[in-house]
Amino acid sequence: MFIAMNRFRVLPGAEEEFEAMWLKRDSRLKEVPGFVEFHMLKGPEGEGHRLYSSHTVWESEDAFVAWTRSEAFRAAHGGAGGTRPLYDGHPNFEGFTVIQTIGKDT
């Protein structure tokens, strides 16, 4: 299993627009081989920003990489620029290979 995360430092006053952009987008993830689940997380306020993180679970790192090279990826990210800057800098990507999972039923 592989987890891909992007952290966003959303500018003050842009939180509602940022959330709406994510909630209304056509992610196409359900169509992608190897996709397991997606979460958009709203975190704490920091100095000059609110932290958000996208958290996507994949069957493997290869499945994630294949998605980033797909037409579905390009289509899902086509409108990411918006009309004004919503966050400070670029998202900070972090990818993790899962070494242990503890679930409610395991």
What does this structure look like?
This protein is an alpha+beta fold. It has a single domain, classed as Alpha-Beta Plaits (2-Layer Sandwich). Helix content is 23%, strand content 35%. The chain has 3 helices and 4 strands. Strands 2-3-1-4 form a 4-stranded antiparallel β-sheet. The mean pLDDT is 89.
Quick recap of the structure?
The chain is α+β, with helices and mostly antiparallel strands and 106 residues long. It contains three helices and four strands; from the N terminus they run E-H-E-E-H-H-E.
Which labels suit this protein?
alpha+beta; 4-stranded antiparallel sheet; 106 residues; globular; 4 strands; Alpha-Beta Plaits
- Poorly predicted spans: none
Going by helix content, strand content and strand pairing, the class is alpha+beta
Beta fraction: 25-35%
CATH C-level category: Alpha Beta
Global geometry = globular
Gyration radius (Cα, Å) is 15 Å
Query: If helices are DSSP runs of H or I spanning 4 or more residues, what is the number of helices?
Result: 3
* Integer count of domains: 1
Described by strand count, sense and barrel closure, the largest sheet is: 4 strands, antiparallel
Query: How are helices and strands ordered from N to C?
Result: EHEEHHE
Oligomeric state: single chain
The strand count comes to 4
Helix content estimate: 10-25%
Question: Looking across the biggest beta sheet, what order are the strands in?
Answer: 2-3-1-4
